[in-house]
Prior knowledge:
Layout: H1 21-24, H2 26-38, H3 43-53, E1 60-64, H4 71-79, E2 98-103, E3 106-112, H5 123-137, E4 140-146, H6 153-165, E5 169-174, H7 182-186, E6 196-198, H8 207-217, E7 234-239, H9 246-254, E8 272-278, E9 281-287, H10 298-315, E10 318-324, H11 331-342, E11 346-352, H12 359-372, E12 381-383, H13 395-406, H14 412-425, E13 438-445, E14 450-455, H15 461-475, E15 483-488
Amino acid sequence: MNDHIQPDGSDAYEGAHEHDHGALGDAEFAEFMELAAEEGFDLEDVEGAIEAAGHGPLPVLAVVGRPNVGKSTLVNRIIGRREAVVEDKPGVTRDRVTYEAEWAGRRFKVVDTGGWEQDVLGIDASVAAQAEYAIEAADAVVFVVDAKVGATDTDEAVVRLLRKAGKPVVLCANKVDGPSGEADAAYLWSLGLGEPHPVSALHGRGTGDMLDRVLEALPEAPAQTFGTAVGGPRRVALIGRPNVGKSSLLNKVAGEERVVVNELAGTTRDPVDEIIELGGKTWKFVDTAGIRKRVHLQQGADYYASLRTAAAVEKAEVAVVLIDGSESISVQDQRIVTMAVEAGRALVLAYNKWDTLDEERRYYLEREIETELGQVAWAPRVNVSARTGRHMEKLVPAIETALAGWETRVPTGRLNAFLGELVAAHPHPVRGGKQPRILFGTQAGTKPPRFVLFASGFIEAGYRRFIERRLREEFGFEGTPIHISVRVREKRGRKK
């Protein structure tokens, strides 16, 4: 019945919260619900669809622990599908480290730190680095320990990290496949993190009780507020692949050497949040420049970089993706852009080293941008030089443009007038003898803009992309992803 797919094929429903009737106006909302009733929609279904789309950022849960304790298996169990790679050998790197999950009607994000195992500094340092980056982004943490093995020195090291971070922790005693293993789990009280929850991630035993405790530890997704900025400086994540010039750019906008810059990729180890005065305003920049890499640890370093990028993006409102204009746009560049879009953040693309490009390279870069990053043609673009400071004055206007698009709200009346004209001029193609129609819609949220459209039948992905394109042409939305979900009217009273 319900079609929750965005134009890009991903799930558009991210949580449930009270719809801001005040933003619609009580009279307008009543009129909207009357229209829904006339079109044959179940009113609870309509209100539920609006509530599901209208919320603030989802809370974040980090899953941490030493290697081979079953973290990725537990993540798969939590998200309800086999998506996190599970493999016995160390160094299994995934592009994606953040997933959406739902339990007992509440949605949240899960950051999985299963994967890379070894580092030149030893397993302890490797686990600590993973845990640090994940905890940085998290509202709560699930700490996974192998109940059969018991607490190890590495586990104790992670416990010290968790205590220092001060985030709520749920202790998961994994690999408890039956009642006999519960005594092993009880020994983990010694870690001082409270009650160990005996779980078998592989078989699902005990995961429900553990998730109930997780929901107690996680904050609720905040209610949607339309057009109001959060308190404090706006938060900007400066992201991009290693050695693309992020630290140099941060130093340039700060006007001083605040971050170590080195020709070696990944000089920055710890995330650095910088309060910077720029363009007459105060901003909080998050520097996410790589990590220390060794040639034979390329996979592990890339994995850590993904964790760090995910952590920074989750904390930010706008992501500035720095791309090296002197090199071809890489798959890694595209993945980082996609990470920001999927996280629902405002987006600015900054092409670095512009001053070093000759006419031929500039020509080919334009073609690459069209083909490789055409899906984010709506993002403001600046051509900069982190080394010389060229065009740095254009960065703040681009960020402000993206944030304005991110917070844009279209009144329901204006949206439906637009949809009516659009459907009349460009109806959905006939499929199987039927022509589905967009009947009406509303914007349920901002940051990013989220729309719920109500239709008489299934709306094809191509037509949804067309609607998004026309929404942008009509209302702007520069610098922001748009989430569109479609709710299809149930067929009623069908005779056999």
